Amino acid sequence: MSGDSKFAGRGKRGKGGAVAEDTADAPAVAPDDDGIEEQEYQPTEADGGMFGDVPAKKAKNFWPSAKRLFGLLKPEAAGVWFVVVLVVISVVLNVIAPKVLGKAMDVIFAGVIGKPLPADVTKDQVVQGLRASGQNNFADMVSKMDLVPGQGIDFQQLSFLIASVLLMYFAANLFLWAQGYILNRIVMKVVRRLRDDTEAKLNRLPLNYFDTRQRGDILSRVTNDVDNVQQGLQQAFSQLVSSVLTVLGIAVMMFVVSWQLALIALIALPLSGIAAGVIGSRSQKLFAAQWKNTGDLNGQIEESFSGHDLVRIFGREQDMLERFDEKNESLNKAAFGAQFVSGMIFPVMQFISYLSYVGIAVVGGLRVAAGQMSLGDATAFIQYSREFSQPLGQIAGMANMLQSGVASAERVFEFLDADEQDEETATEHLPAKTDGHVEFQNVSFSYTPDKPLIEDLSFTAEPGHTVAIVGPTGAGKTTLVNLVMRFYELNSGRITLDGVDITHLSRAELRSKIGMVLQDAWLFGGTIYENIRYGNLDATEDQIMAAAKATFVDRFVRALPDGYDTVIDEEGNNVSAGEKQLITIARAFVSDPSLLILDEATSSVDTRTELLLQKAMAALRTDRTSFVIAHRLSTIRDADTILVMEDGRIVEQGNHAQLLASEGAYYRLYMSQFAGGIEEEEEPAAVGAGE
Length: 691
What we know:
Elements: H1 31-34, H2 62-71, H3 77-114, H4 123-132, H5 136-143, H6 155-202, H7 207-211, H8 215-222, H9 224-257, H10 259-266, H11 268-306, H12 308-313, H13 317-343, H14 345-369, H15 375-416, E1 438-445, E2 454-461, E3 466-470, H16 477-484, E4 492-497, E5 500-501, H17 507-512, E6 514-517, E7 526-527, H18 528-533, H19 541-550, H20 553-557, E8 567-568, H21 577-590, E9 595-599, H22 607-621, E10 625-629, E11 641-646, E12 649-654, H23 656-662, H24 665-674, H25 682-690
Parallel strand pairs: 3-10, 3-11, 6-9, 9-10
Antiparallel strand pairs: 1-2, 1-4, 4-5, 7-8, 11-12
Helix pairs in contact: 2-15, 3-6, 3-9, 3-15, 4-5, 6-9, 8-9, 8-11, 9-10, 9-15, 10-14, 11-13, 11-14, 11-15, 14-15, 19-21, 21-22, 23-24
InterPro entries: AAA+_ATPase, ABC1_TM_dom, ABC1_TM_sf, ABC_transporter-like_ATP-bd, ABC_transporter-like_CS, P-loop_NTPase, Type_1_exporter
Family: Belongs to the ABC transporter superfamily. Lipid exporter (TC 3.A.1.106) family.
Domain ABC transporter: 438-672
């Protein structure tokens, strides 16, 4: 199939460039023609309204979503456990270092106190002398010291202890860097798989998924939300593991040093937990609203960018600016609220840690003065207390980041869990050479159950014939060809291709037999040659050149400086509308389809270009069954059969001459275009009746 796309998803393509799954790659729906406007999708609160006006709620299932998010790490379990081991080693070294540093402080203090003491006495004698003189507290302090009277600071031991501390901190940070490096590689693999899953999901979603949702919101889910998931995994995971282990390790060491001071320090835990829970619960809602509003704003930006020409033509710049400002303000409020609330966690945690620190400093000082603990232990404990509050703050901060990451993950999971197109089981196959005999047998279809669009439709398209479909907007013309492509499934009836029910064929096989040229010519980024080849990736250069010449692409390409190597820019603005359409016709030509669909293929070009396009399409239609949707009736005079549709039904059928002679619906359409229009006889009567 050679289809035009407005969305970036691509499926695997077989012969003819057919999409192997139902994708957004060929959004053949044209709302003006298929009646979607009459059966308009009504957004729910969960969808955020048509333009995201309904504020998003908090993540509906935090713990299941968090479990599923971290479940993405399962394929990298070995690497994750290695990271945990590195974190444990780093934490152990960081936890032991203050104790060793406290020992160094004891060596210094023992040297300072021991130096002026007489060298001919023992420490026990010094202690007894102090008690005898009534200095019991000082005596208790000296008794706790490892000092030698008359001996100063043991610099050899001090150097060893300081070197040990420095080595511990260096090794701890080296392991910390290693675990960060490995974790980043793991997370990047996970996120890459997640991106692959979202891209593959795009190709498995039914067309109505894209009909009923803003493109900006979909893009936000597969880009911004995935990025936020990556950030959450990279930072929250490593920090949470490290911080939790650090808290546990420090808690153990604090009890080893002084269980009394440890109890004072642990008072901060329930206070911190309450603060983190309250603030985290509130920030979760706000982060969900922030990311929902980001998707809405992206949709508005995409709409403004895609339709910037139309906006200027109608002078709606101010209107678009006001709509943008409205959504931008909503995002600003949501983002400010999320950042304000989440930003409260650090000062609150810091204040709690200071309360604990003050209590430890006072009680610890009293215990040192009373000789109940050494100065080194007191110094180590104060260091532990400060290091204890830091990971608590990090846990709270990472909890906020995790809230944001899980909120985004839930949006991604909602996208990944969206209902896909029905499973297909190919029970029949088409021959290699298909005649193109198409038959509609009592076909009925509706976008919503309560509003039927096509009812009991039957007709036959003979092999090699051109079937033109005309009718007013909303008659169901484009819907009809979408059903041939199996972009939608029938409510009842069946469609056959060469006698085979198309539901018995795989979508890939069916679409490999069909070529399509849409009203809006869509070219992919790349050269003209690559865009033609896109219709059949196995086509030879001779086949591509033959298609280009048959469709008159070669005529204008030869005049370009780079010829077929001319790169089409993102918007395709370096070629004219007619030239783009010729390229899409060549793309369909090279796919060599048995069945051809031309949907308003000449409606957006001038008369001179239209004649050239008609010649190109005539070459393309040769020996192929063709469905042509047209508003310009001049383009379908030579059609073998013309179907006139109104309200999903065929009201007339015949060739051009027969339908003009019958002076029915087709005659009125024709005269409105070529004879200046005719008056409806019923209108005056209706007015009179109304009066």
